[in-house]
Amino acid sequence: MIALWFTLVALANPVDAIYDLWRAQTEGAVWRSPTQRERATLQDAVDRLVRTAGSCPQDEIDEANARLAEHDFRATRISVAGFEGIAVSDGVERRGTGLLVIRCGIASPLAWQAPHSFYDLKTGGITRQLFVESGARLGFWNTIHRYRSRPDETEDDSVHPADVTREYGSSFHAMTAAAAMADTRLRFVQIHGFAERAGGWDAIVSTGDARRPPDPVAAALAPLGKIGAFGSDTELLGATANVQGRALSRFNPPRFLHLEFSPDVRAVLDAQAESRALVIRAVGVPP
Questions:
Q1: Are 105 and 87 in contact (CB under 8 A)?
Q2: Is the bond into 253 cis (omega within 30 degrees of 0)?
Q3: From its phi and psi, is residue 252 left (phi > 0), alpha (psi between -120 and 50) or beta?
Q4: Which of 233, 265, 283, 251 shows the shortest CA–CA distance to 120?
Q5: What is the DSSP letter of 287?
Q6: What is the four-CA torsion angle of 148, 269, 235, 283, rounded to 10 degrees?
Q7: What pLDDT does residue 96 have?
């Protein structure tokens, strides 16, 4: 029975393989908030898989998959051009759980997140490339538009259940919390985008806390343009309401970075490996 929920993806490169998994999760997706049991099941499986990711033993994967299948989630093995990983996602019912990819073997203690893949253009693709190129342990992507939890939802509505950066009860947040507890070395980096050069900035970086401005990270990103650190250079786009940021701020030292990029910078990051390498080096600088 386990084999029904455990498949092998073998494509040309890991970035394309992850994209195909993500795209399949978005097709026909209809938002449904997870139950408490569903969140607990995801957290148990993610905890198990992250704790054993150094070797990804098959018995641990099988046990996690058996638990996931009880609530129509699945773990999919990715084996592509030297990349080995496990993807956690929805099963048959696409309800906006999101996609988590766990790298097996040696990995850097980074977790890249694209929680607004549809709304913040290019952030999903940039995050896929950053995840693969940095050798990171984890990558996260949302699978339903933040303002599409129902067909008639508009951006002006007061509540947006599918905006996973605002919902402590989302599966995306449940998996984030489980991963953070399973590996306390992980630093979570969210990639976002704004429509115009807010306040004249090309990028704004934040820890989610104005008392902890990430000045060294902003300085390291200076080749990308005019970079502001929230809390010292600007009060814009600080991610103070971001629920992942709030949860991760409880740790010391800080484990959350929020990177907001202009359209021009996102275009550069999407196209240029050397610019992405700059970001990878920058997030390794303590804030």
A1: no
A2: yes
A3: beta
A4: 265
A5: -
A6: 110
A7: 97
Output Rg (C-alpha) for the chain, integer angstroms: 18
**What's the pLDDT tens digit per position in 215-264?**
999 999 999 999 999 999 999 999 999 999 999 988 878 799 999 999 99
> Dihedrals φ, ψ of 262, to 5°?
-70, 165
Q: What is the pLDDT of residue 10?
A: 46
Nearest Cα neighbor of 180 from 262, 95, 263, 256 is 256
Q: Which helix (H) or strand (E) holds 137?
A: strand 136-141
Q: How far apart are CA 219 and CA 286, in angstroms?
A: 12
DSSP E strands in 24-107: the ranges are 73-80, 83-90, 99-103
Angle at 168 between CA 164 and CA 170, to 5 degrees: 50
Nearest to 86 by CA among 114, 113, 57, 117: 57
Question: Which regions in the chain score pLDDT beneath 50?
Answer: 1-11
Provide the β-strand partners of residue 108.
136
DSSP assignment letter at 234: B
